Predict the 3D structure of the following.
Amino acid sequence: MKQLIIIGGGAAGFFLASNVKSSKWKIKILEQAKNPLQKLKISGGGRCNLTHACFSAKKLVKYYPRGSKELISVFNHFQPSDTFEWFSQKGVDLKIESDHRVFPQSDSSQTIIDTFLQETQKNNIEINYNSKVINIKNINNKFEIATTENKFFADALVIATGSSQKMWDIIHHQLGHNIIKPVPSLFTFLCSDKLLSNLQGISFPEAEIHIPSLKIKEFGPILITHWGLSGPAVLKLSSWSARELFKLDYKFILRINWISETFDRVREELFIEKIKNSKKSIYALKIYNLTQRFWNNLLYSLQIKDKKLADLSKKDINKIAEALTNTQLQINGKNTHKDEFVTAGGVDLKEIDFRTMQSKLIPNLYFAGEVLNIDALTGGFNFQACWSEAYIISQYINSN
């Protein structure tokens, strides 16, 4: 019986093992941790955001800053609707939330972990924990894999180790693949501007953020945090501009339109309020559903004193309109959640045949998951790429 070794006991590794015919292959998973599927376990706050309810391959690839072109063919073979069907066949009910993220009905990642463990047990798949790979030899397109304690031999090898610098070094130096230098993706912005002081937890559902030096914009919700700015719009901007922001050392000017209105429109609204509520204090004005804390901070930062709307000067009104539509903040760094760290970088996609996920350089060598130079926005997209790539590999291996 032929030997298949999967390096990496994460989402891609377990999904692959669950789909390869064990009657044809003896399958081993090598996982360096003492427990499997650790990233999956914490996904979605422990609920496991395992895919996204987007059922068109052409639309789905738009959520992948790197890898969109290559993934079209992959998603045409296995996409979120197939993920639903696969888990349904295993007795796992999934649900779609209002933002189109998909979770198990149980709201527990343990449901997904248990499903994979049951599948691997049913298929007599050997799982070797605490198995840190230190060397891989290609011997006539078969493989000798050395861990700190053992040696393994494989007719086919799948590397699904995620964002591991040590494995990237092995892949480059011992297997000859080019590695696109990894840089952080999906991160929040550090900002110590006084405007944000004591405003953590306040969100703006329809904001526009802009980095003038890079000429890039993003729309969507943003959130003020203890350390600066987060939220979907910030995460999207960080993902699409991962390499450019790395070159800037994460220090740049960010412009924010908190309400996605034009300067002229806000200015006009303020003049209307001045006439309608002339005796009201500027600090008591309720406008654009802004919280009182943010409004107070904004006016204080503009050095506008507490006075009646009737007493607002044209200059005051212009300053407020400008601040609401074009605040300028200095960003001084990034912040990432180390357990959910996502990188832009990995095995060069030019060296992969996406019809099979096989190396173009070495037959019988396959890659899946974040070890590749593919990454996505938040919302279950990274896991979907893992499922789809692993499925492609399983079907090709099953046919041989």
